Amino acid sequence: MSLLPRVIVLATGGTIAGTSSSAASSTRYQAGTVPIDALLDAVPVLKQVARIEAEQVAQVDSKDMSFALWATLAARVLYWSAQPDVAGIVVTHGTDTLEETAMLLHLACDTARVPVVLTAAMRPATSLSADGALNLLDAVRVARHPESMGKGVLVVLNQVIHAGRDAVKAHTSAVNAFVSPLAGPLGIVQDELVRYLRAPVALPGAPWAVPAAWPAVEIVASYAGPGRVMVDALVAAGVRGLVVAAAGNGSIHETLVAALADAARAGVAVLRSSRTGQGHVTLCRHPDPQAGLFASAGDLNPYKARVVLAMALARDPALASDPSGLQRLFAEI
Ligand code: SIN
Q1: I want to staple 241 with a disulfide (CB 3.0 to 4.6 A). Which of 77, 110, 145, 269 is the partner?
Q2: Is 166 in the pocket of ligand 1 (CB under 6 A)?
Q3: Which tens digits make up the pLDDT trace of 231-243?
Q4: Could you report how far apart the first and last alpha carbons of the chain are, in Å?
C-alpha cells in the first residue's frame, strides 16, 4: 500500500489536452483532444508525487463552457472533496474561461480539508516547450500540500499559485498569461517547494449552491457613442441581471445610464464593473445620481462579476431590486 497522498484529477479539455499537426505551432491546434490518462502517462514523475486517479469529466474547448458542464464539474469536485482519504483535487481546464470556472468553484467549494487546484496550458501538448506537463505536475504538488488547505480554490500555471477569486487571463498566448491584478499571486511552486506569500483576500463563508437554473445575466459595455438598444432588448427578453463593463472607475455613458436606470426600475439587477482590467470600482465616483441604482462589483472583472451575480440572484431573486443588499454582498466576496 503506497503512502503517497491520493489526488483526484478531473479533466475537462482545453489546450493542455490540445494537439497540432506541427510541433512548431503553438497557436494552430485543436483543444481538448488528448485523454487525461495519456496526459498523465506523459509525466511519469507524477507517480512519485501522488496516487492519482483521473476522471474525464469532459473534453471541450473552454470557450464552449456551459452551465450543464459547470454543474457536472462542481458535483464531481464536491463528491471527491467529501471522500475521507482524498488529499487534493486538480481540475484541468482551458485557459479561455478558466477565470469564470474558478469564480464558480471559489463560491461553491469548501477547501478547508481538500485543496482544489485548477490548471491549464497556453501551448498544446504537441508543442515545442509545451507548458502543460509542468503545470500538471505543479498543480498536483500544490493540491497535495497541507498549506494549500483552506485557501479557497487555487489556480496554478507557470510556477505561480493564484487565488481562484483573483486569477484572470491577461495575455492571448504567453505562458505567463495569468495574473492576479490587484492582489498579486498567492504563492509560487518551484520543484518540490510550495511557498505561500500572502493570505487570500476573501473567502466565502458557507459554500454557495450551484444553481439548478441559472438566471439570465448578461454583460454590456460602455464606450463612445453607445445606443440603448442592447439594454432595452435584453430587458425585453427577460434578463434578470446586467453587468456593465464600464469605463475607468465604473463610468457609464449617459445614454446607457438612462437605459440601465430604466432596467433597474423594472427590477433588473445592475452592476458596475470596470473594463480596465485592474482596480476597484468605488461607489462615490459616478457623477450621475441614477448610478446609485447600480451596485459596484468591486475589483471583480465583468466576467467574474457575472458569475457571482447570477449565483446570488439564484439564491435570492429579491436582490434584483435591492442595490444596497447587492452592494453588501459584493463587498464580502
Ligand atoms: C480553451 O480555453 O479550451 C482553449 C484555449 C486554452 O486552453 O488555452
Answers
A1: 269
A2: no
A3: 999 999 999 999 9
A4: 42
Residue 286 exposed, middle or buried by CB count within 10 Å (0-12, 13-18, 19+): buried
Instruction: Answer whether 252's CB lies under 8 Å from 242's CB.
Output: no
Q: Which among 12, 92, 95, 97 is annotated as catalytic? A: 95
Could you tell me the three cell numbers for 82? 467529501
> Which atom number of ligand 1 is nearest to the Cα of residue 120?
7
- Reported as a single tens digit per residue, the pLDDT across 252-303 is 999 999 999 999 999 999 999 999 999 999 877 677 777 778 999 999 999 9
Give the integer Cα–Cα distance in Å for 123 and 134: 12
Side by side, the strands of the sheet bearing 295-296 are 217-221, 241-246, 269-274, 295-296
Report the C-alpha gap between 245 and 3 in whole angstroms: 49
pTM of structure: 0.97
